[in-house]
Amino acid sequence: MHPVVSRLASLAAGSAAVCALALGGVVAGLPSEAHAQASVLLKHQSAKAVVETVDHDARELLLREANGHLITIEYGSAVRDLPHVNAGDKLSISFVETLGADLAPPGSPLPESTLTTARGYVHGHPRGVIASFRRERAKINTIDLPTHTVTFTTDDDASHVAVLRTQAMQDFLKTLKVGDVIDITRMESISYIILNEKTEAAQDAANAAAAGAASAPGAPVPATAPQPATVPAAPVAPAQ
Fold it and tell me: Where is this region: Disordered (predicted)?
């Protein structure tokens, strides 16, 4: 696994340009409206790492995997509601990246980039999720079906050339014509679980205390058993 740099802070403002139709990946299942849209899973990596440093000013984490590779996560001031981590914490990390494109309906508003965060617990361990959605509109300039090549211009007037390497995107290209307007969405999601033993021990102690209080004479009986908080899974294009 190569070092990964995720600039999630800038994505919330939609400042990052998207010109990634040329990237290949695992072909995702197409929805019923396959003529209008396509989606692919570009990357899905998991690893365990230790927090090397936490830079609160730069809002940046430096992680080290077991094989020595370093991972930098820049989470930015826009990220809220996540469990705090400290140097020495052990993390289980999952990184998912997907790419989607669909035909923009005439007169529809420009797509907006967004950033979503969430937190919860997995078997007593704190969990955080950061998911960014970079969205951009593009106009098709030329199409070459034999070579699966397309040129397009994005809203910043930048021109791009892309060679589509997945069947889903190649099928989508066949439905397009010069002058069509499409919306491109790249989703990047990083989720982590804090695996520290002290965290698990503290959670077990809290659960034991709660169980003891509930079994005490005269203790009120809850209508339903308490459930741990959950974190919504980051959207991932299903693989065929």
Answer: 210-240
Q: Which residues pair with 65 in a beta bridge?
A: 49
- For residues 240 and 26, give the distance between their C-alpha atoms in angstroms, rounded to a whole number: 8
Q: What is the DSSP string of 190-235?
A: EEEEE--HHHHHHHHHHHHHHHHHHHSTTPPPPSS-------PPPP
In the chain, which ranges are continuous DSSP H helix? Answer: 8-12, 167-174, 197-215
Tally of domains within the chain: 1
CA distance linking residue 18 with residue 20, whole number of Å? 6
Question: Any long-range contacts for 223-229 (C-beta under 8 Å, 24+ apart)?
Answer: 228/120, 228/121, 228/124, 229/119, 229/120, 229/121
Residues in the chain: 240
The model carries a pTM of: 0.66
* Cα–Cα distance for residue pair 190/165, rounded to 1 Å: 25
**Which residues of the chain carry a pLDDT beneath 70?**
1-36, 197-240
Residue range of the domain that includes 125:
38-197
Q: Tokens 């809203």 — which residue?
A: 155
